[in-house]
Amino acid sequence: MIVHHVLSLFGMLNMAFQGKWGTELIGVIGGTEITNPLLQLRWFLKTLNFNSLLVSFVDFSFIFTFGYFRLYLGGHVLVHYVTYPKWDFLGKLGAVTMYALSVVFYYYILRYAARKYGGFLSKKKELVSSNGVHKHSSNGCASPNGHVLSNGHLQSNGNHAKTD
Fold it and tell me: In this structure, are residues 47 and 40 in contact, taking their beta carbons and an 8 Å threshold?
């Protein structure tokens, strides 16, 4: 995350010292920061331990807007900027690096979403713990010790085997 901010700072300093490309840089920064309110709302809801349809809606809205603005529209801007005939090596290097960083961020966002919401896509499975208590899990994952994974957290079934 710090790399993103350092690159943005260098881009703005490069723009200020060269006295050009201001419109493009401000447009790109504005476009990428459109996702920021959803990112902050996700953090607040997570901090307050909200677990509702609102959280899922905010998550999917963030995933969609990040992909649309940073990758789809950002990709169009990147192609036009990089193929522009005037040579600005630092600007083009910064643009490609920022786009590559967005691709890496999106990979981790999709990985998080698959881990969190992947169980909704599969059929609910019923797990039987070692003490005969039935546990329901949307993702069907359980640890060998009878703990059930639910929304990425381990839940104990009450049996605590001593491990030496």
Answer: no
Residue 62 inside a domain? The answer is: yes
Q: Is residue 161 included in any domain, yes or no?
A: no
What would the 3-class secondary structure string for 42-107 be? HHHHHHCCCCCHHHHHHHHHHHHHHHHHHHHHHHHHHHHHHCCCCCCHHHHHHHHHHHHHHHHHHH
pTM reported for the whole predicted model: 0.65
Domain that holds residue 46: 2-119
Mean pLDDT by 10 residues, the chain (164 residues): 80 80 77 88 89 90 94 91 84 87 94 86 47 47 47 49 46
| 51 and 129 both lie in a single domain | no
Q: Is residue 163 part of a domain?
A: no
Q: What are phi and psi of 137, to 5 degrees?
A: -140, 130
Question: What is the C-alpha separation between 88 and 136, in angstroms, rounded?
Answer: 58
Q: How many CB atoms within 10 Å of residue 119?
A: 19
d(CA 84, CA 56): 40
Q: Tokens 């009450």 — which residue?
A: 158
